[in-house]
Amino acid sequence: xxxxxxxxxxxxxxxxxxxxxxxxxxxxxxxxxxxxxxxxxxxxxxxxxxxxxxxxxxxxxxxxxxxxxxxxxxxxxxxxxxxxxxxxxxxxxxxxxxxxxxxxxxxxxxxxxxxxxxxxxxxxxxxxxxxxxxxxxxxxxxxxxxxxxxxxxxxxxxxxx
Length: 161
What we know:
It comes from Gossypium australe. Keywords: Disulfide bond, Signal. With about 160 residues, the protein is of the alpha/beta class. The chain folds into two domains: about 1-25 and about 150-160, no CATH class; about 25-145, Barwin-like endoglucanases, CATH 2.40.40.10. It has seven helices and six strands; from the N terminus they run ααβααββββααβα. The protein has helices spanning about 1-10, 15-20, 55-60, 65-70, 120-125, 130-135, 150-160, and strands at about 30-40, 70-75, 90-95, 100-110, 115-120, 140-145. The model is unreliable at about 1-10, about 15-25 and about 150-160 (pLDDT under 50).
């Protein structure tokens, strides 16, 4: 770890930036897809994956509340990314190509239509002009990102400061 820190120090990169890059998609790729919305309503359902019958509840239902409630939820069946169950719990940055609004979401479910089904709350926050609601869909760019759950990002924060 010290060796990596020294290399980053020498190159002028922040450790947190490099760790975020290393924890992103192995290919660094994402895709632009259509997104509809799904009524998970995680807050009203106590952030309980079993309550909403999410596919990933098999693996993630017993994760701490802080983990389950950190980000909004989405299904994933996009054309680029890992397959299930490895996708469960991964995070993506989703951005409306029309409004530019963006948010990080956690994958909790799968679908079969080659797109995303964002929780309605996330969908509405990205649909800042209401056009997506009127059309019933948004065009979304997604990229896999780190979820910021671990020791590495805490360490990076300390080192960067």
